[in-house]
Fold this protein.
Amino acid sequence: MTPQKRLFDLFTACVLSVIVLPVIAVIAVLILLIDGGPVFHSGERMKTPTQGFRFYKFRTMRPDPNDSGVSGGDKADRITRTGAFLRRTRLDELPQLFNLFRGDISAVGPRPPLRQYVERFPDVYAQVLRARPGITGLATVHFNRHEHWLLARSRSAAETDAIYCRACIPRKARLDLIYQAHQGFCFDLVIILKTFVPSLR
C-alpha cells in the first residue's frame, strides 16, 4: 500500500467515523435488545497470502462452533431477526471501520478472503492480494448481488463451497485484477460512489 493510499484511508475513516459511530452504537443496542449477545462477529481474513487478521462485523447469525466457509443458503436458518436487514443493507459491515483505522484493510480493494480459499487457490490469491483488501471494491460493486444469488440456492455446505469455488472466486479475481491495473485516487472515488449509489452501477 502506498503512503498516499494509506493517507486517503485514514482521511476516509475519520470522515466516516463522524457518521458511522453513532449508527454503530444504535445497531449494537438493537442487536442486544432483539437478538441478545454477542453483538460483534470476528473471524480470520487474509491481508496477504500468508498474513491473517481479525475481521469485524455485526453478528447476523446464531453462533455455530462448527461454522466454516462462506455463507450460502445452507446457513439461512441461522440468520437472526436483525441479521436479515443488516445483510440486505450491508450495515453489518460498519465495524470494519476499526479494521480500516488499523490498516488491516483499505477503503477500496479486493474483499479479504478466508484462509482456506487462499491455501486452496494460492496462484489466484498471490495475484489478488498484491492489493490490500478493501471494504468495497470493483468486484463488490459489480458482482456482489450475483454472488449472493448464486450462493442462496445452495442447500448444503459442500454445495455452497463448490459454487463459490467454481463460479465466484474466478469472476471476482478477474475484477480484482482489473482494479489493480487501473487503481488510483480517481478510480477509488468512482468505486466508493458506486458503492453508495447503486443506480450508478
About this structure: The helical segments are 3-34, 81-89, 96-102, 115-120, 122-128, 138-152, 157-182, 185-196. The two ends are 26 Å apart (CA to CA).
